[in-house]
Design brief:
The protein is built from five helices and 24 strands. It has helices at about 5-25, 280-285, 310-315, 335-340, 345-370, and strands at about 30-35, 40-45, 55, 65-70, 75, 85, 105-110, 115, 130-135, 150, 155-160, 175, 185-190, 195, 210-215, 240, 265, 270, 290, 295-300, 325-330, 335, 375-380, 385-390.
């Protein structure tokens, strides 16, 4: 047999297998399949033409690992008149392609309504990401509505509105960084309207392993309030974003449980500046938190649109490093008179002052390198969730920051 004929036979076999794969592919009426973003591809089902429930065994070649339901305007029932999903508990995680997360996205039509129930997502425990886009959740988030997922890497609600949050809305849900490409461990509510100005006590408690909480551009019924116990159980949070929210202040100690917090995004927050409300600046400094955007004063009028640090530095008493003990402060350290003029005081004084001057120089050099004035962005995901700010918002009208504040 010649080399050409061998190649021809091999090519025929490949074409036969490919045709067999395509012919074996199936999905429900009202759904379509596309592999343009990779294989396994995405099944997209049109809510206006598909018949519920979506049944697992009507999908094949590949398994429904990546699923989108679009043009939604109505309910995804749990049982009556039918379930929304049937048989999906048969999906084995062993069948997942590890190059892609298992994902479900629900997209509403413009001003489309979405009614969810406890049990809506029954059988979908294999899913790793959930995104709800541009939906009016007129029934709010019922208790235990996401509990069927068990573990998720991310839950994102982007756009639309939510008419009611309950203390147990997230009960039964665990958000954590999973072993998937570009894992996030993120809960996000963005660009949407709430019919309240706060979150019920305990709302975030189930998310004890979440790494990032994003509450960006939320329109609330009045100025947003976050009670002291809001994040009590979220001890693993590394990123907290409150950008462009209606916050005017934060309750003292609301961040006290966030021992792992590294990034705090306050871009676009209009602060009611008082010395009491700016306790957060001291916390940012003492806890070495990277503050993004920094709060800007809305009141008092003399400081409107100026950095809160300007008000704080000009108007608020600064900590006394010597705490009332007679002495001098050098390099942020207290040198008491007793240290300077006690036994052997002259030599000790020279040594201490030299050390203090060296520390001051080092701190100044470090501050120049580490405390730039503008923040343009923080990238908390490689999948497009990028939180950026207009450079104009970064323009500080003051020329000096309190010692120790970190702006990245």
């Amino acid at each position: 047999m010649t080399t050409i004929s061998k190649f021809g036979r091999t090519l025929l076999v490949v074409l036969f297998l490919l045709c067999d794969f395509i012919s074996g592919q199936s999905f429900p009426s009202g759904c379509a399949y596309s592999s343009t973003t990779g294989i396994p591809g995405i099944f997209t089902c049109d809510f206006t033409t598909v018949t519920l429930p979506l049944t697992f065994n009507t999908f094949s070649s590949p398994y429904p690992q990546r699923l989108v339901i679009n043009n939604v305007d109505g309910q995804l029932p749990a049982s009556s008149p039918s379930a929304s999903f049937s048989g999906f508990s048969s999906m084995s995680t062993a069948n997942l392609d590890t190059n892609f997360p298992a994902s479900l996205e629900i997209k509403c039509v413009s001003n489309g309504n979405l009614l969810l129930f406890a049990g809506t997502f029954s059988g979908l425990s294999y899913m790793q990401e959930l995104k709800i886009t541009n939906c009016i959740l007129s029934g709010g988030l019922p208790n235990n509505v996401f509990s069927d997922f068990g573990d998720l890497d991310s839950l994102i609600i982007d756009g639309g509105s939510i008419n009611g949050l309950n203390a147990d809305s997230l009960s039964g849900l665990n958000i954590t960084k999973l072993s998937i490409p570009n894992a996030l461990g993120m809960f996000a509510m963005m660009n949407l309207a709430l019919n309240t100005n706060t979150f019920p006590s305990g709302f975030f408690y189930p998310l004890s392993k979440v790494k990032a909480i994003i509450l960006d551009n939320l329109s609330t019924s009045s100025a947003m309030s976050l009670p002291t116990d809001t994040f009590t159980q979220n001890t693993n949070v590394e990123t907290l974003s409150l950008s462009h929210s209606s916050l005017t202040s934060l309750e003292n100690n609301v961040l006290s449980s966030l021992g792992a917090l590294n990034y705090l995004n306050l871009t676009g927050v209009k602060w009611a500046c008082t010395c009491d409300s700016l306790w957060i600046l001291s916390t940012i400094s003492t806890e070495s938190i990277n503050a993004i955007g920094g709060p800007v004063c809305d009141t008092p009028s003399d400081y409107q649109d100026k950095r809160a640090t300007t008000y704080y530095y000009n108007m608020c008493p600064q900590d006394d490093a010597c705490r009332g003990t007679p002495g001098v402060v050098l390099g942020g350290e207290c040198i008491t008179y007793a240290m300077l003029f006690g036994d052997g005081g002259a030599n000790v004084a020279i040594l201490i002052i030299s050390c203090a001057i060296l520390i001051s120089v080092l701190k100044t050099r470090r501050a120049v390198k580490e405390h730039p004035r503008e923040v343009t962005s923080i990238n908390i995901s490689t999948r497009g969730y990028r939180y950026s700010r207009d450079k104009k918002e970064a323009e500080a009208k003051s020329t000096e920051e309190p010692s120790g504040l970190r702006w990245v």
